[in-house]
Write a structure and sequence with these properties.
Blueprint (H helix, E strand, L loop, with lengths): L4 E10 L3 H12 L4 E4 L16 E2 L11 H11 L6 H20 L14 E2 L9 E2 L5 H15 L3 E3 L2 E9 L2 E9 L5 E11 L20 H8 L4 E2 L4 E8 L13 H4 L3 E3 L23 H12 L15 H13 L9 E4 L5 H7 L1 H11 L8 E10 L2 E3 L12 E3 L4 E2 L10 H22 L9 H16 L6 H15 L3 E2 L1 H19 L11 H25 L8 E2 L7 H4 L4 E7 L2 E7 L6 H6 L5
Parallel strand pairs: 1-2, 1-9, 2-6, 9-16, 15-17, 18-19
Antiparallel strand pairs: 3-5, 4-5, 7-8, 8-9, 10-15, 10-20, 11-14, 12-13, 13-14, 20-21
Helix pairs in contact: 1-4, 1-11, 2-3, 3-11, 5-15, 9-10, 13-14, 13-15, 14-15
Bound molecules: flavin-adenine dinucleotide (FAD).
Length: about 600
C-alpha cells in the first residue's frame, strides 16, 4: 500500500465554498478542532462565481417584505414540495446571517440612507437580494475565508476526497489524494460535513466550473445516504451562446433584475405570452408599467408598479427561450436577445460591471449599446442529499451536508439568490450540529484498513492499465447524452434510453485508463469525478422517469401537467443503493404546521 498520512479532527468539512466555510467557522467557534478540505485552492470554490446576490427579507427597499413573504415565495417557486421547515428557517434566519457577514467585513452596495441595498430577482415578491454589484460571491467568500483563517482552521487545499470511510457507528472520516503529488491521504473525524456543491458537469452546456462533478452526492450515496428529488436540475435561462468556447457561461439574473428585456428575432417581447395564468396578476400589465418598475428600482425606491414579465421564475423563462428557439424565432447563434442598453451606460456599468466586461472581452459586444445573445444553461441542482432541516444530519450517523449538495430547501425550482443565503443559514446550523456530534464521541475513530486499502487500489488502477479509453471520451459522451435525453424537456422513452446508455458508459468507465503519472494529472483526476458524475446522472435519469408529472424544473412532455392527485401526498423521489444497484421510490414530504400552511393559502 502506498505511504500516506492520517489527519485526525473533531469535525472534517469537505468543501470550502460558502457552505463549507460557514460550517467550519461555526464548528470552530463551538470549540471543535476543524479540518477543511477542498479540491482546488482556498477561495476558488464555486461560490466565488455567484453574481446577483443573497436573498434575505430585510425590508430595506421594500418595507412590506417579511420572512413570511420570503417563505411563501420560496415554497411557491419550489412548487410546494420544498421541506417547509427548511424554507421557514431559511426565511427567518437569512437576515441575521447577512448582517453577520457585514459585521465580519463584507461591503455591500448601499441604499441612499446607508443600509444594505436589495435588488429584485425572479419569483421574489419584493426587492430582496443583498448584493455587491454583480460580484457578490467574491465578497462573500473573501469575508468567510478571512474569518476562517483568523480562527485558525486547518485547511487542506488541492486535496480530492474519493471515499468516505464507514464503521458500525456511521461515517468515521474520509480518504483522498493530493492533486499536486497524487499521494493518498486519510482523515479520521468524529463528524464529517459534505459541502461539495453541484453536478453541472454532467451536461455539456453549463455555467458550472470543473469542480461540479457531484462528488459529495456520490460519496454520500455510496456511504448509504439517500438522495432526494434528483430530477430537479435547474436550467438557468440565460447563459452565453456565443462564441462556442464560452457557451453556457452565466449571464446573471441581475441583468433581468435591473430591467433587462428579452426579445426574439422578430423583436417581440415574448415573455408576456409565457406568464402562467395563475400568476399573471403579479406581473406588469403593459410595457409602460414594467418601465415604471425599472425606473423606481434604479432610484432605489419602492413602487406600486408590478415587476416585468422577464422576472418570472427560472424554469418558466428557460422553457420560454427554448420554445422560441425551437419554433424558429431564435437569434443568429441559437439563443434570444437580452437587452439592457436602453438604460444609461454608466448605470449599467456600475450595476453590472462583470457582465459588461464578460461580453466585451469574450464576445466583443458592448451591452451598454446593444443586446446580448442568451440561452438556457445547466446551472444548479435542487436535488441532493437528504438532510434533517435543523441540523443537516443525513440518514447516515456522523455524516452531515449543507449547501448545494444538500436538498430540501428549494423543492422543484430554486429562486435566484436563495442559494447564497442557504449556504449561510444551513452552513451555520450544520457546523453547530457537527460540533455537537463530535462532543458526543470519545476517541478519534479508527479507520477500517480494508476500506482504505480498497480506496488506495482504486486510485492506482487506471494508471496501471496498459490499455483502455481515456476519461475525457466517456465524459463527452455522457454530457452529450444527458443534454439529449435528460434535458429541459423529458419523455419516458428517452429516459429509458438514458438509463441504458448510462449502464454502457459505466462499463466503459470500469476499465478506463489514465496516461502519465500522479502529479498534476487532470486526466487521472477526471476518472474519479467521472465515476461520481455517472452515479448522479443515473439518479437524475431514474428519478425523472419515476416522476410522472411536470413540476418546476422537471418537464415531462408525456405528463405535461402537475399531478397533485398522484404526487400530492408523496412528493419526493428518493434514490438509494440497494444490493449493488440504485432504487428510486416516492416518499411523503415532511408534514407542515397549520401556521405555515396558512401562509400558503391560495398558493399552488
Ligand atoms: C455563475 C454562477 C452565479 C451564481 N450566482 C448566484 C447568486 O447570485 N445568488 C445565489 O444565491 N446563487 C448563485 N449561484 C449559485 C451558488 O453560487 C452556488 O449554489 C453556491 O455557491 C454553492 O456553494 P457551496 O458552498 O454549496 O459549494 P461551492 O462553493 O461550489 O464549494 C464546493 C467546494 O467543495 C470542494 N469539493 C468538491 N468536491 C470535492 C472533493 N471530492 N474533495 C474535496 N473537496 C471537494 C470544492 O473544491 C469547493 O471548495 C450562482 C452559481 C453560478 C455558477
Amino acid at each position: 500500500m502506498a505511504e500516506f498520512k492520517t489527519h485526525a479532527h473533531d469535525v472534517l468539512v469537505i468543501g470550502a465554498g460558502g457552505a463549507g466555510l460557514r460550517a467550519a467557522i461555526e464548528a470552530k467557534t463551538a470549540g471543535a478542532d476543524v479540518g477543511l478540505v477542498c479540491k482546488s485552492l482556498l477561495g476558488k470554490a464555486h461560490t466565488v462565481m455567484a453574481e446577483g446576490g443573497m436573498a434575505a427579507a430585510m425590508g430595506h427597499v421594500a418595507p412590506a417584505d417579511s420572512w413570511k413573504v420570503h417563505f411563501r415565495d420560496t415554497m411557491v417557486g419550489g412548487k410546494l414540495i420544498n421541506n417547509p421547515t427548511m424554507a421557514q428557517l431559511h426565511a427567518t434566519e437569512a437576515p441575521d446571517r447577512v448582517r453577520e457577514l457585514e459585521a465580519w467585513g463584507a461591503i455591500f452596495d448601499r441604499t441612499p440612507d446607508g443600509r444594505i441595498l436589495q435588488r429584485p430577482f425572479g419569483g421574489h415578491t419584493h426587492a430582496r437580494l443583498a448584493h455587491v454589484g454583480d460580484r457578490t460571491g467574491l465578497e462573500m467568500i473573501r469575508t468567510l475565508q478571512d474569518r476562517a483563517v483568523a480562527l485558525g482552521i486547518q485547511v487542506y487545499m488541492e486535496c480530492t476526497v474519493t471515499r468516505l470511510i464507514t464503521g458500525a457507528d456511521g461515517v468515521r472520516g474520509a480518504f483522498g489524494y493530493w492533486r499536486t503529488t497524487g499521494r493518498p491521504v486519510a482523515f479520521a473525524a468524529k463528524a464529517t460535513v459534505l459541502a461539495t456543491g453541484g453536478i453541472g458537469r454532467a451536461y455539456t452546456v453549463t455555467s458550472n466550473s470543473w469542480e461540479y462533478s457531484g462528488d459529495g452526492q456520490a460519496l454520500a450515496y455510496e456511504a448509504g445516504a439517500e438522495l432526494i428529488d434528483m430530477e430537479f436540475v435547474q436550467f438557468h435561462p440565460t447563459g452565453m451562446v456565443w462564441p462556442p468556447g464560452v457557451r453556457g457561461l452565466l449571464v446573471t439574473e441581475a441583468v433581468r433584475g435591473e430591467g433587462g428585456i428579452l426579445r426574439n428575432a422578430l423583436g417581440e417581447r415574448f415573455m408576456w405570452k409565457y406568464l402562467p395564468d395563475d400568476r399573471r396578476t403579479e406581473y406588469a400589465e403593459t410595457d409602460e408599467e414594467a418601465t415604471r418598475w425599472v425606473t423606481a428600482l434604479s432610484r432605489g425606491q419602492d413602487t406600486d408598479a408590478r415587476r416585468p414579465p422577464e422576472l418570472s421564475t427560472r424554469d418558466n423563462v428557460a422553457r420560454a427561450i427554448y420554445t422560441e428557439v425551437k419554433e424558429g424565432r431564435g437569434s443568429p447563434h441559437g439563443g434570444v436577445f437580452l437587452d439592457i442598453s436602453y438604460l444609461p451606460a454608466e448605470h449599467v456599468k456600475r450595476k453590472l460591471p462583470s457582465m459588461y466586461e464578460q461580453f466585451k472581452e469574450l464576445a466583443d459586444v458592448d451591452i451598454t449599446t446593444g443586446p446580448m445573445e442568451v440561452g438556457p444553461t445547466t446551472h444548479y441542482m435542487m436535488g441532493g442529499i437528504r438532510v434533517d432541516a435543523a441540523t443537516g444530519q443525513t440518514t447516515v450517523p456522523g455524516l452531515f451536508a449543507a449547501g448545494e449538495v444538500a436538498a430540501g430547501l428549494h423543492g422543484a425550482n430554486r429562486l435566484g439568490g436563495n442559494s447564497l443565503s442557504d449556504l449561510l443559514v444551513f452552513g451555520a446550523r450544520t457546523g453547530a450540529a457537527a460540533a455537537k456530534r463530535a462532543r458526543s464521541v470519545d476517541a478519534s475513530p479508527y479507520l477500517d484498513p480494508v476500506q482504505v486499502q480498497g480506496a488506495t487500489a482504486a486510485l492506482a488502477a487506471p494508471l496501471d492499465r496498459s490499455e483502455g479509453e481515456d476519461a475525457y471520451a466517456i465524459q463527452r459522451d455522457l454530457q452529450e447524452m444527458m443534454g439529449r435525453l435528460v434535458g429541459i424537456f423529458r419523455v419516458e422513452a428517452d429516459l429509458d434510453e438514458a438509463i441504458g446508455e448510462l449502464a454502457d458508459l459505466r462499463r466503459r468507465w470500469q476499465v478506463v485508463r489514465a496516461a502519465g503519472g500522479r502529479a498534476y494529472n487532470p486526466g487521472w483526476n477526471l476518472v474519479f469525478e467521472l465515476g461520481n458524475l455517472l452515479t448522479v446522472s443515473e439518479a437524475i435519469a431514474r428519478s425523472a422517469r419515476q416522476r410522472t408529472e411536470s413540476r418546476g424544473a422537471h418537464s415531462r412532455l408525456d405528463h405535461p401537467a402537475m399531478d397533485d392527485a398522484s404526487w400530492g401526498g408523496q412528493n419526493s423521489t428518493v434514490a438509494r443503493a440497494a444490493d449493488g444497484s440504485m432504487t428510486v421510490r416516492a416518499t411523503p414530504l415532511p408534514t407542515m404546521s397549520d401556521d405555515l400552511r396558512g401562509l400558503l393559502s391560495g398558493a399552488h
